[in-house]
C-alpha cells in the first residue's frame, strides 16, 4: 500500500467538505487539494483557486502537482466533461463521463432510459412546444410536475397548484428560456416519502451506500420553494430491507446495466432520488454524483477507507468490502435569509471553534469564505458555484481570519448519536451555538422519524 497519495477534490460545497473529511481519514492519503474549496475545507485541504468548471486548468494542476486521483463533487464539472479530459490525459479520476452524466443533465434522457429498461417511475410526456405542453396540461388532472430538461441548480422542478400557474411556468421555461433553450418533461404527481439511495457504480456493478433522506422544501412543515436541500439524516427506519432490495435490484442495477448497453457505462456515484409510493418504490430523479446534503450524513458513517473505494472504481479493480457504522446522523442546513431566492452574503459567522472538538458534531461548510473574499450579493445563482475561495491556501485553519457567509446554503451541522433522536438533539444544540445575523434553518428536520405517530 502506497501511503503518500495526493488527491484533488473538485468542488467547494458541503458535499466536498464531507468527501475531504472522509479522505482525510485514509492512511494512504498524505495530501488533499480542493478546488476551489471554502473556509471550512481550508482546515483539512489546500484550497486551489480554480472553479469546478475550469476543466483544462484542473487537468494541468493535476499533472503539475503529481495528483494520484481526482474526485469530482458537482454535476457541473461532470457535465463539462472533466472525466473525459482527465481520462485522455491518463489521469485517474472518480466520476462519470459526460455521456454517462446525461442521466442527470437531461431529465428526458433519464425518463427514456427508465422506460426502455422497465424501471418504475411516474408516467410522463416531453415537450418542446409551448402550445402542445399547455394543451396536455389543460387536459390533465392537477397537480402535475413540470421539469426543465437540463441543469437548473435544483430549481428546474415546479409543482403548480393551478392550471394558470402551470401556464406561467411553461411560458418561463419554453418561451422565455429562463434556464436556457430546452425541453420540459411533464410528469404525473406521485405521493409518498422520498429517500436517497446513493450507490457506488462501476459499469454493471452496484454497491449501495447507507440510506438517507433530504428535506427539499425551504420552510418547516415541508412548505415553501424547493431548494438544494435543507437537512438530512441516516439511516431510514421507514425503508424496509425489502424496499432496499427492490430499489437495488429493480431500479439501480437495471439502470446501471442500461447505461452499459447504451454505450455509456457509469463509473462513480449514481444517486437515486426515490419515492415509496403506495404502489411500490418509484424513481423521482437520478443524479450522477454524491447528493448534497445527503453526503454530509452518509460519509461520516463509512468505516472503510474511501480512497480504496474511489481507486477501485477509477481503475476498474475489485471493490473492497464496504462497512457502515451503526451510529445515526442528522444534519441541519443553515442557509442565508432569502435562499433559494435573492440573498446577501458576507455576514460574520461565530461560535464554530467551540464545536470543533466535539466528537458528536461535525460542521460541514457549504458556502463560506474568509472575510474580504466575498462579493456583495448574488441573485438566484447556484450556491456551490465556488466563486469565492480562501486567500491563504496553506491547508491549515486560518488563525484570526473571520469566516463569513458566501452562498445560499452556508453550513450543514451534523450530529451523531446512538439513535436518530440523539443525533437530532446534538445537532440542534450545536446549531443554536452558531451566531450569524443572516441565517435561517428548519427546526423540523427528521420529523418523520422523530414523531412516529405523525403523518407518514
Ligand atoms: P427532482 O429535481 O426531479 O428531484 O424534483 C425535485 C422535487 O420535486 C423532488 O424531490 C420531489 O419532492 C418533487 N417531485 C419531483 N417529481 C415528482 C413527482 N413525479 N411527484 C411528486 N413530487 C415530485
Ligand atoms: N439533495 C439533493 C441533491 O443533491 O440533488
Task: Write a brief structural summary.
Helix content is 27%, strand content 26%. It has 456 residues and is of the alpha+beta class.
Task: Please explain how this structure is put together.
27% of the residues lie in helices and 26% in strands. With 456 residues, it is an alpha+beta fold. It has 4 domains: 5-95, Rossmann fold; 123-188, 2-Layer Sandwich (Dna Ligase, domain 1), CATH 3.30.1490.20; 194-315, D-amino Acid Aminotransferase, Chain A, domain 1, CATH 3.30.470.20; 328-454, Phosphoribosylglycinamide synthetase, C-terminal domain (Glycinamide Ribonucleotide Synthetase, Chain A, domain 4). The termini are far apart. The structure holds adenosine monophosphate and glycine. Adenosine monophosphate binds next to β7 and β17.
